[in-house]
User: Which sequence fits this backbone?
């Protein structure tokens, strides 16, 4: 097999596309547009002011054949000037996004190029590249949910497992900010007149933590707490930052229902509570439809892919939550993601590009 030319991967890796750098994210997106348009993809741009634009690339649907969505994200985690260079040796490529997930986007691009070169056209395959995955997809999740009904299957290109496992399950996640407002008073002279927001926060922290059920894969964590003015003042305000994660739809429903009710049950008279936030990504669980997708891929490849479940989240959660059979982890194997040691295996790129080419050929030629 001819060695892979990583020039195009180098090009996008060296574009700083930190989520907060809209100009860089959009440049990365424009670069992907320049590469996909010659493959006869049409593009719909979801213009945004505060984050990068989201891009939906589409091909014709032939004879009502099932359509598959390839899902990726354009953003990375490092602000400008920190970690921006690409390098390689005999076994690895190094740089921001080489495995999370510009490397995954490169796998999808390479497979699509193979398909176009071999058959002259691509059908029944769309690509969605979002701009804010690394900060929770707070904007793009609405786009993803909006288009989900159009697809019979979804493949996400986050990094593969160490033995090229694909991901069949991910925890769901919800985040909240809870603001507590009390009444300030001098702690020495007028203690009895104060309404202590810090005390309410402390009681609420315990109650929130008690929602955790480790045996069910559910955790509720108050990761940050602040409040008060000074040691001699009854606290008039406090704030809790809360994250909940769950592995089962029933637990997701329980926790999402319990937290908004619980915030008013801190027991401190005169302290009021307000809550912001909610579900970021649905839980992703194995389903019979997902198993059928895996079996189809096994038949296409002639061997079975190993699977795993992960505690982290991705945009695959959103598609799975919308009822679309979804598999994640079709990018290359790598490690060090979100650090300055990020890298991806060259041999892994070879394997994944070959596999994805075969899978997409099946979908594109079903006419």
Assistant:
């Amino acid at each position: 097999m001819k060695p892979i030319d990583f020039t195009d991967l180098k090009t996008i890796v060296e574009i700083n596309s930190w989520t907060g750098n809209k100009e860089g994210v959009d440049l990365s997106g424009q670069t992907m547009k320049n590469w996909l348009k010659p493959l006869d993809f049409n593009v719909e741009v979801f213009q945004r002011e505060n984050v990068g634009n989201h891009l939906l690339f589409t091909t014709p649907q032939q004879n009502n054949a099932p359509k598959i969505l390839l899902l990726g994200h354009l953003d990375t985690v490092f602000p400008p000037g920190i970690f921006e260079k690409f390098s390689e040796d005999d076994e690895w490529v190094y740089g921001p996004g080489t495995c999370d997930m510009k490397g995954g986007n490169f796998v999808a691009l390479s497979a699509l190029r193979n398909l176009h070169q071999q058959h002259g056209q691509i059908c029944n395959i769309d690509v969605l590249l979002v701009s804010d995955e690394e900060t929770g997809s707070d904007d793009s999740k609405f786009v993803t949910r909006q288009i989900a009904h159009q697809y019979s299957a979804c493949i996400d290109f986050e990094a593969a497992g160490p033995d090229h496992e694909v991901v069949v399950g991910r925890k769901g996640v919800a985040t909240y900010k809870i603001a507590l407002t009390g009444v300030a008073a001098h702690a020495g002279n007028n203690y009895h007149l104060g309404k202590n927001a810090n005390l309410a926060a402390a009681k609420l922290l315990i109650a929130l933590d008690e929602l955790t059920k480790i045996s069910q894969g559910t955790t509720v964590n108050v990761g940050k707490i602040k409040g008060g003015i000074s040691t001699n003042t009854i606290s008039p305000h406090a704030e809790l930052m809360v994250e909940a994660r769950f592995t089962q739809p029933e637990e997701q429903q329980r926790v999402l229902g319990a937290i908004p009710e619980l915030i008013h049950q801190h027991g401190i008279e005169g302290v009021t509570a307000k809550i912001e936030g909610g579900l970021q990504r649905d839980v992703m669980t194995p389903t019979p439809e997902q198993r059928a997708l895996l079996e189809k891929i096994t038949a296409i490849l002639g061997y079975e892919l190993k699977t795993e479940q992960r505690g982290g989240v991705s945009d695959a959660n959103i598609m799975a939550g919308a009822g679309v059979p979804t598999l994640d982890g079709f990018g290359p194997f790598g490690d060090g993601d979100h650090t300055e040691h990020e890298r991806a295996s060259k041999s892994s790129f070879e394997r994944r590009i070959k596999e994805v080419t075969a899978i997409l050929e099946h979908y594109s030629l079903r006419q």
Notes: The mean pLDDT is 96.
